[in-house]
Amino acid sequence: MPVRCAWAGDDELYIRYHDREWGIPVYDDNRLFEMLILEGMQAGLSWITVLRKRDHFRKVFDGFDALKISQYDEKKIEELVNDPGIIRNRLKIRAAIQNAGCFLEIQQTHGSFSRFIWQFVDGEPRQNAWRSLPEVPAKTAESDRMSRELKKRGFKFVGSTICYAFMQAVGMVNDHVVDCFRYEEIKSGLNQSGRR
């Protein structure tokens, strides 16, 4: 039985997410956008709640196509608010639409969102070495900076704690605890199947 980060618990969906996704560096703009929106949706809730709804989110949010989302109108907002398959928070839904427009602007000005967002760790994943879950910070100077920059560009639901959770999820930081079997794999650049 491999040792995992304690937060993965015993839920199969959580374990799969921990083992196959969390902490693997992501450079694809569409996936980065999806994670930024989902982390914002999580505010005040548990991540497992979002994970359980993620497939339906993808369906009703047009595969997290930022261009399509940026054009959502009031009718679409009402549809989303009334969809029990997602988190039906009007403010978060409106924020996702606004964030889509801001995301597209960054793509235009920086060539890609990936190039912009990875600058907060100088383009390289940070390799931390936490021994236990309580040591892992909720935010850092880098996430503070990212939050400030995103807010300056009009993004919503991008506080420093949300930004740090995003950084952890997309592998900008390796926050698997050192005893976790994924820690060394991620550190050495191995993906979920054990291949570089």
Automatic annotation (TrEMBL):
SUPFAM superfamilies: DNA-glycosylase. InterPro entries: Adenine_glyco, DNA-3mA_glycosylase, DNA_glycosylase, Tag. It comes from the Bacteria. Zn(2+) binds at C5, H18, H176, C180. One of its GO terms (molecular function) is metal ion binding. It catalyses: Hydrolysis of alkylated DNA, releasing 3-methyladenine. Keywords: DNA damage, DNA repair, Hydrolase, Metal-binding, Zinc. Its EC number is 3.2.2.20. Hydrolysis of the deoxyribose N-glycosidic bond to excise 3-methyladenine from the damaged DNA polymer formed by alkylation lesions. This is DNA-3-methyladenine glycosylase I.
